[in-house]
Amino acid sequence: MGFLSLKSAALAFLAAVGNTALVSAQEAEALKVMFVNEFPDTPIDLYWENHSLDDDHPERRKLEARIPPRGGWHSSETFNGHEFSYIVDGKRHFVTPPPGNVNGEQFLMVAGDTDGFRVRCEITVNSQQYMDYLDILVKPYWSPRGAARFLELVRDKYYDGAAFNRVVPKFLTQFGIGKDFATRTKERALTIWDDFPNDVKFEPGTISFAGSGYDSRTTEIFIVMPGVDQAQLDKFGENSWETPFAIVEDVNKSGLMKIYSGYGDMPPFAKGPDSSKIYDADGYTTYLPKTFPKLDYIDRCYVVGEVGLGDDQSEGEF
Q1: Beta strand pairing call for 30-37 and 105-109
Q2: How confident is the model at residue 23, as a pLDDT?
Q3: What's the pLDDT score for residue 314?
Q4: How many beta carbons lie within 10 A of that of residue 120, not counting itself?
Q5: pTM greater than the 0.85 cutoff
Q6: CA of 13: how far to CAs of 48, 50, 61, 78, 208, in Å?
Q7: Is the pLDDT of residue 12 over 90?
Q8: Could you give the 3-state DSSP secondary structure of residue 147?
């Protein structure tokens, strides 16, 4: 933090509140918080709050970090129960990070009152006969770690050229195996921790990462298809990695409904594209074009608010 060590800050906080507040031993436990700024071009000043001091005291509010936009981040060594603040659009927002995961870590977006960050994916439809698009609204507070990872991959153009390799009407559409062999091999090994469970219910158009176990998310995501029955909707989210982080806007009229689905589900459920073979070196050069020539693909994805801002990335990618 720059002006107090973690241990000293915790002890000073406890001493200051004395018997005037209920602060348990758990609340003084160490906590590492990753604060992330996904705004296109607005840096965020993050402040350390000390409510034990008067408002006019020079130590009452301290600037801890300026977080750059477009995926910039700041890691704060703090403790449970401490409050931070930041300003967006002239309004000060206060946040007390919830207790961390088993690693003593919490992950938060500093997004103010924004409804979300829009991503557009331009796609082929009807077996590559036409072009259409998906408008995706990434929600900053649903599953912040998943949201940040998706936005990072979009900025890195990872999804450009990716196949819609699992398209099952009234169930889901899945994609996220990158076109470039070296890149998809590297990204496949970079897993992210699960987000905390949220109260967001799955519905048609909801987007979540796919996975294979705890803390297994990499790059593959799925979109819930219109027409899915309630029993299946209730099953989505039973796995720890299935936490919604975005939604396809106006899903029933979107290009999602025109993506080719004739090959059916993946093995062993049906005879559609096998994900493990797509990951092979010849996945995009031989396997998909020769075995499944009618698949549709993503042409490109981009963050709408960042168009025209250049390709420079902020420091501190995950």
Answers
A1: parallel
A2: 43
A3: 52
A4: 17
A5: yes
A6: 12, 8, 13, 11, 39
A7: no
A8: helix
The upper half-sphere exposure of residue 121, i.e. CA atoms within 13 Å in the direction of its Cβ, equals: 31
- Which of 50, 38, 148, 28 has its CA nearest to residue 99? 28
Q: Are 187 and 217 in contact (CB under 8 A)?
A: no
SS3 255: helix
Region for residue 290 given its phi and psi (left: phi exceeds 0; alpha: psi -120 to 50; beta: otherwise): alpha
Q: Spell out the alpha helix ranges (H) of the chain.
A: 6-17, 144-155, 181-188, 230-235, 275-278, 288-291
Structure tokens at 58: 């020079």
Nearest to 278 by CA among 207, 201, 202, 176: 176
Residue 14 has pLDDT above 90, yes or no: no
Question: Quick one: tokens of 211?
Answer: 């996975």
Q: What is the DSSP string of 214-266?
A: TT-B-S-EEEEPTT--HHHHHHTT-STT----EEETTGGGSGGGGS--TT-SP
Rounded distance between C-alpha atoms, residue 161 and residue 253, angstroms: 23
* Cis peptide leading into residue 40 (ω within 30°): no
Backbone angles phi, psi at 187, to 5 degrees: -70, -30
Contacts of residue 204, defined as CB under 8 A and 6 or more positions apart, other chains included, come to 224, 225, 226, 227, 228, 251, 252
Tokens of 8: 């000293």
Pair 46, 83: CB distance under 8 Å:
no
Task: Supply the pLDDT for residue 56.
Answer: 87
DSSP state of 26: G
Angstrom distance (rounded) from CA 167 to CA 266: 9
Instruction: Tell me the C-alpha to C-alpha distance, in Å, between residue 222 and each of 127, 168, 175.
Output: 19, 11, 6
Which residue shows structure tokens 């967001």?
A: 200
